Amino acid sequence: MKQLQKNASVVVSCLWASSLLVMSAAVQQAVAADATTPHTYQVFFDFNKSNLTTDAVAIVDQAAKDAAEGKTTHIEATGYTDTVGSDAYNLRLSKRRAEAVLAELVKQGIPADEIAIFAKGKHDLLVATKDGVKEPQNRRVSIAYETPAPAAAAPAEEKPAEAAAPAAPTSAAMTTPAMSASIAANATPMSFDLGSILGKVYVTGAVTGIGIWQDKVNPGDRSIQADLSNGQVFIQKTDGILQYYVQAGAYTIPDLGAAYLPVGKAASSTFGNLPMAYVKLAPTDTFSVEVGKLPTLIGAEYTFSFENLNIERGLLWNQEPAISRGVQANYTVGPVALSVSLNDGLYSNRFNWVSGLATWTIDSANTLAVDAGANLGHTGTNTYVTPAAQNNEAIFNVMYTYTSGPWTLNPYFQYTTVSTNQSLGFTQQADSYGFALLANYAFDSGGTLAGLSLPARVEYISTSGSLSKGAPNLLFGPGSDAWSFTITPTYQSNVFFARGEFSYVTASSTIPGFALGPTLGSPSQTRLLLETGIVF
C-alpha cells in the first residue's frame, strides 16, 4: 500500500510537470518576440559592503531614467562579489547588493515587480582572478534591460554609462522556494533550455538529515532520533506569460512545543508528497495571478526547515497557515507590493479564507510588511494539519526587516482572535498576542569564520480565555503564556550546509493535558538538534 502511494505521488508529479509544459507551449507559441536593443550598466561596491556609494547611486539613477524613457518593462539586476571568502557568504553578499540596487531603482519610480534580482556570488567574474583576491571590478551589480530596436538600420549611439551587453546569465539563484539569510540557494542551479517556445526550466532541491535530543518527551515521541528532514525536488519556469512551480518529495516539519512527526508520517498527515504546485499567469511585469497549492501570505517564517533561520518552527508560526489551496493575485506599484488570496486557510479544503499582504520596500536596508487573514465562515474540520481553533481565527501581523552589512533583524507582532461558535463548542472568545525577533549575523567573508552565521529567535505569546468557560485552546491550554529562545549556528560551503540548534520553551498558566512532557503537564522543554545536507 505504501509503495502504491509513492507510485501515485510520482505519477501526479509527472502529470503536473507535463501538463504545465504543454500549457506553456500553447500560450507562448502565440507570443512573437520583437527585435530589441540591450543596455547594461555596471554598479561597483566597496569591499564587503552592500550599500550604494554616491557614484553608484548616480549610475543606478541614470539606468532608471533611461529605462523609463525606453519604456522597458523588465530589468535584471545581478549581484557579484570578489573571490575573498566562502561561496555561501559571497552569495548572500551579492544578493544584498542586488537588493540595494533594486531599492534604488524602485525609489526612482521603477515598479518593483518589473525588476528581477539574481545573485551570482564569486562566479562569472568580470576580471578573472585566483581565490582570495580583492578585485574591485568584481564587486558589482550588473543592470540589464532591453528596449525595442529602432526602425532605422543605423545603430543608436551608446551612452557613456553603458557597456557592451554580456550574454544573459546562464544561471542564478532561484528565489523560490523562499530562503532565509542563513542558508543560500545554489548560485548555479541545474536548468534545461527547451527552446524558444517552452523556455528554460530550472530543477533544484534539498536533501537533508536531522538528529534530535529532547529532555521531556511528549506522548508518541522519542528522546533521541535521527531522520530525513527533506528529500525534495523543485521544478519551475520563471519567465514568460505562463510560469509554474512544482515541489515534490518527502519532508518533516520540526516544531517547537510539539511532538516530532517523522518523515514516514509527515506528508500523509499534512500536505502530501506534492506539498506545493501552482500555475502563475503573468500578463504584465506588475500583475500576476497564481492558482494551486500556494505558500501562505501570513507570517515571517516558512514551512520547511531548510528555508528558515532555525531548524524548528516557532510558537507564533503555530498560529498561522502554512500552505493553502486557492487563487492569489499580485500587483506591484512603485515600492509597494500587494497580494490578496481566496483560499482554504489551514488546508481545510473549504475555500472560505481571505488573506492579504502589503510590503513596502522603504530602501535597501528597510522593509515593512503587514498581513492579515480570516475565515469568513465556519469550518468544522479538526485534524493535525487543520486545527479547528486556528482555522476559524482572524490573524494580523506587522513585520519589519532591517539589513545592514552582516546583520539581518526581523521583529514582528502578531494578533489572533477566535470568536464564539456554539457548533464548534467555542462558548468563549479566545485571543492571542505575540512578539518575535528573528536575527542573523553572518561572519566576515575574509576572516577565519568565513561561511559561518549565527541565527537566533526570541518570542513571547500570551493567550486569553478559560477552559471552564469553553474557550478554545491556542497554546498550552486556554489562558496560557509562553516564551522561547532558539539559537542555530550555521556553516555553509557551496551547496553543503551543517547547523546545530539549542531551543528552550517555557510556559505559564498551563492546563494539565495541554502542556509538555509525557503527561502533558510539564511547563518547559529543551531540545538539541543537528541538521545537515545540500541545497542543489
Kindly describe this structure.
The protein has 536 residues and is mainly beta. It has helices at residues 2-28, 54-69, 87-107, 195-198, 263-269, 388-391, and strands spanning 36-44, 75-79, 115-119, 140-148, 190-193, 200-214, 224-237, 242-251, 276-281, 287-295, 323-333, 336-343, 353-361, 366-375, 393-404, 407-418, 430-442, 452-463, 481-487, 490-493, 496-508, 524-535. The strands form 2 sheets. The protein has an 18-stranded antiparallel sheet that branches. Strands 1-4-2-3 form a 4-stranded mixed sheet. A hairpin with a 5-residue loop joins strand 9 (276-281) and strand 10. It is globular. 45% of the residues are buried.
What is the rounded Rg? 24 Å
CATH-assigned homologous superfamily of the largest domain: Porin
Q: What's the helix count?
A: 6
The helix content is 10-25%
Number of strands: 22
Structural class: mainly beta
Shape: globular
